[in-house]
Specification:
The complex is a heterodimer of chains A (631) and B (127). By secondary structure, chain A is an alpha+beta fold. Chain A has 5 domains: 156 residues, PAS domain (Beta-Lactamase), CATH 3.30.450.20; 52 residues; 102 residues, Beta-Lactamase, CATH 3.30.450; 78 residues; 157 residues, Histidine kinase-like ATPase, C-terminal domain (Heat Shock Protein 90), CATH 3.30.565.10. Chain A has 18 helices and 17 strands. In chain A, the strands form 4 sheets. In chain A, strands 2-1-5-4-3 form a 5-stranded antiparallel β-sheet. In chain A, strands 7-6-10-9-8 form a 5-stranded antiparallel β-sheet, sandwiched between helices. Chain A has a 5-stranded mixed β-sheet with strand order 12-14-15-17-16. In chain A, strand 8 and strand 9 form a beta hairpin. In chain A, helix 5 packs parallel to helix 6. Chain B has 127 residues and is an alpha/beta fold. Chain B has one domain: 3-Layer(aba) Sandwich (Rossmann fold), CATH 3.40.50. In chain B, strands 2-1-3-4-5 form a 5-stranded parallel β-sheet, sandwiched between helices. In chain B, helix 3 runs parallel beside helix 4. Chain B is globular and about 30 Å long. Classes of the chains: A alpha+beta (631), B alpha/beta (127). Chains A and B meet through helix 12 and helix 13 of A and helix 1 and helix 5 of B.
């Protein structure tokens, strides 16, 4: 049953009930009044006929005759009783059985009203109609009309009417049902149709051909469905294209990742492995399925996990570490944080969604590095032995000449004096060049070790002042030789740093001796200041300065600023590159500023204790060893 | 009589040291040489030289081993050992220290280095 019909039915029932009640009440009332009036006229007609026909008998006092007459009248429908009262007020005859009820005795003398209602206990309701006989001189006739009959007639009438109404109601409900159905059926069809449309079934159709509003609605819906199906088809095609394109891109990316020579590892922020490529599986001799979903700490160890942590905390930096691969090979892992470029998350940690780690097999490079270091080490060893002989014997020659030969020669001979002078000079050149060669061998060995990360660092807490004093002491003879003034400025309250004392003194000695080497007159100023989280040490000289073109390459190997100078001071060309290696290992920076003919400033910065970053990149040993070898 | 032993497989280095030490020789200090570790060890045990110049790279037995044998021998322990090394690496310095060497000279050395050290040691031991 449709909802529409239900509602209609309820409205109909209510309306019918109101109509039924109203008509029943009004018809009932009318019928009642009509019946009362009819009974009254009927009663009074009977009373009148009794009165006119009973005059004589009454005058003759023949109650039995009267009795016989009135008995006949009780046969008439509706007449309940009849009694006659004489002029004395006595009931002379009546039809009551077995006796006159009390209520009748009370009203027997009332003549004023022609009719009245009487209720007799045990008998019911009656209308009592009285009629005087001969103007009341003889007596009064009373006729009692039974109200019960009126009521039963009233009930029958009402029942008929209600039955009729009910039949009409049922018929009208049937009609209403048919009518509502006629409206609601196409509506239901439309509802089904629109439901199908909503579930994207555009093959569905609706069969409504009527010309009314519903028909129009159906037509509109049909054309709308057609439009919709077209739009949907278009979007589905576009979606298919997009999916195909996306799949292609994904396949391409996957192919790129899968064919990378380097191992790729992707983790989430907790270090859980999300993705690996075949190269990585190969490197670690592990199956992909054994790695996915596991914590990289359990699979690759604490170093890699720490790398992930670091890259998560500093998403803009790349961190590297060495890692052991399967089969005794070595890898280098580079980790970077993956973060979304969303403006919503202000905190970098919120943006972070994981880390991507690239692992490269550097076994070959390591071997080559090792070979290079070994080679340089061997070469330097092989060079040192003959160099020792060259220098040693030259010194002995010099000594013997000075002690044993030169004193024997005649000092007066100018030629001999000149020759002696020349010999001394030549021997000095051999010695100084030999020393330079020694320094070069030392520096080559040093820088190759620094570059290969084979230097053992003795990291300890250091006062910068202490470093400067040591370097100043070690180079004091150089300052004296050139008669240069050494000035220094120390910012009060300089914080401690952590570093390799010997190596940092090496840097300072190098910078001091460079400054002295390139300065003919004036002074050298050493400053140590604090800025942010760093201590900056700068050494300014009043020397030749460096040409701008050379400034950028002074820290490169074998690039001496002196190259452009005709009267070039000699060095190994490795001093500043070694300084750079040492400073960068400490997490600092080294740089040079210069003005030709006015002087140069070489500066380096070192992070202070609290701001020390974790060592990254180079494999170094960060340990605090206080004891130094004293032999 | 004071004695100095030079142990090096390179004859030129032996000669150089001998030349440097001629002045000491002239003063009556005995100078002997050895070109390998085993010979050196025999000589040391026999002669008990006051100073031993000991090269690291030696045939048959390397300098560190010779050094550790001497330093672990109670009767030879007092002998002054100067290691000669061409490398100058920290690892060698450390090793020399571990094996109990008394001093360490890197090649190339100057004659002053050698003379100063020898005078110092001999002076101290002769007193």
């Amino acid at each position: 049953m449709s909802k529409l019909f239900k509602r209609t039915l309820i409205i109909m029932i209510v309306l019918f009930a109101i109509i039924a009640m109203t008509t029943a009440v009004s018809t009932g009332w009318n019928l009642y009044n009509d019946l009362i009036a009819e009974y009254k006229s009927k009663g009074s007609a009977i009373a009148r006929s009794i009165a006119s026909s009973s005059v004589e008998t009454l005058l003759n006092r023949e109650p039995s005759t009267v009795q016989a007459m009135i008995d006949q009248f009780t046969e008439i429908l509706g007449v309940s009783y009849v009694f006659v009262v004489d002029n004395q007020g006595e009931i002379i005859s009546h039809t009551f059985v077995p006796m006159i009820p009390r209520e009748i005795i009370q009203i027997k003398n009332s003549t004023l009203d022609t009719s009245r209602d009487v209720s007799i206990e045990g008998k019911g309701e009656f209308i009592d109609i009285s009629f005087p006989i001969v103007e009341g001189t003889v007596g009064v006739v009373h006729v009692g009309m039974d109200k019960g009959i009126i009521f039963s007639q009233l009930r029958a009438g009402m029942f008929r009417q209600l039955s009729l109404l009910t039949i009409i109601f049922i018929i009208s409900v049937v009609f209403a049902y048919m009518f509502v159905n006629k409206i609601s059926q196409p509506l239901n069809k439309l509802t089904d149709y629109s439901r199908k449309l909503a579930s994207h079934d555009f093959t569905a159709t609706v069969d409504i051909k009527s010309q009314d509003e519903i028909g129009m609605l159906a037509e509109t819906m049909k054309s709308m469905a057609m439009d919709l199906s077209e739009v949907f088809e278009r979007y589905e095609l576009a979606l298919k294209d997009a999916i195909v394109e996306l799949q292609d891109t994904l396949a391409y990316l996957t192919a790129v990742i899968d064919n990378m020579a380097d191992g790729l590892l992707v983790t989430d922020t907790d270090g859980i492995i999300n993705h690996v490529n075949p190269a990585l599986s190969l490197m670690f001799h592990m199956r992909e399925a054994d790695m996915i979903g596991k914590n990289c700490r359990d699979i690759f160890g604490i170093e890699l996990f720490e790398l992930v942590e670091k890259s998560r905390k500093h998403p803009d930096e790349a961190f590297t570490t060495g890692i052991k691969l399967a089969g005794g090979k070595f890898g280098q892992a580079v980790a970077t944080g993956i973060h979304k470029d969303s403006l919503e998350a202000e905190d970098v940690h919120e943006k972070g969604i994981g880390s991507v780690i690239l692992i490269r097999d550097i076994t070959a490079e390591k071997e080559i590095d090792q070979m290079k270091t070994d080679f340089i080490s061997t070469v330097s060893h092989e060079l040192r032995t003959p160099l020792t002989s060259v220098l040693g014997f030259t010194e002995i020659i010099e000594k013997r000449l000075e002690e044993n030969i030169f004193p024997l020669l005649k000092p007066m001979d100018q030629g001999v004096i000149a020759t002696i002078k020349r010999i001394r000079n030549n021997i000095k050149i051999i010695l100084s060049e030999g020393e330079r060669l020694t320094a070069l061998i030392n520096d080559v060995l040093d820088i190759s070790k620094l570059e290969a990360g084979k230097v053992e660092w003795k990291m300890e807490r250091i006062q910068v002042q202490d470093l400067i004093e040591h370097a100043r002491f070690a180079t004091s003879s150089l300052f004296e030789q050139k008669k240069l003034e050494f000035r220094q400025y120390m910012e009060p309250g300089l914080p401690e740093i952590i570093g390799d004392r010997g190596r940092l003194i090496q840097v300072l000695i190098n910078l001091f001796s460079n400054a002295v080497k390139f300065t003919e007159q004036g002074h050298i100023l050493c400053q140590a200041t604090k800025s942010d989280n760093e201590v900056v040490v700068s050494i300014a000289d009043t020397g030749f300065g460096i040409m701008e073109g050379d400034l950028s390459s002074v820290f490169e190997k074998f690039k001496q600023a002196g190259d452009t100078l005709t009267d070039k001071p000699r060095g190994t060309g490795l001093g500043l590159p070694i300084c750079r290696q040492i400073i960068e290992y400490h997490g600092g920076k080294i740089w040079a500023e210069s003005q030709p003919e006015k002087g140069s400033i070489f500066s380096f910065s070192l992070p202070v204790l609290s701001a020390l970053p974790p060592t990254k990149g180079k494999a170094g040993f960060l340990h605090y060893e206080e004891s130094e070898i004293q032999l | 009589m004071q004695k100095i032993l030079i142990v090096d497989d390179d004859p030129l280095i032996r000669l150089l040291l001998e030349e440097i030490l001629t002045d000491f020789n002239a003063k009556g200090i005995q100078i002997s040489t050895a070109d390998n570790g085993l010979t050196a060890l025999e000589l040391i045990k026999r002669e008990e030289p006051d100073i031993i110049f000991l090269d690291v790279m030696l045939p048959q037995m390397d300098g560190f081993e010779v050094c550790s044998i001497i330093k672990n021998d109670l009767s030879l322990k007092h002998l002054y050992i100067i290691m000669l090394t061409a490398k100058g690496q920290e690892i060698d310095k450390k090793k020399a220290h571990e094996y109990g060497a008394d001093y360490y000279i890197t090649k190339p050395f100057t004659i002053q280095d050698v003379i100063r050290k020898v005078s110092e040691v001999l002076g101290a031991s002769s007193q």
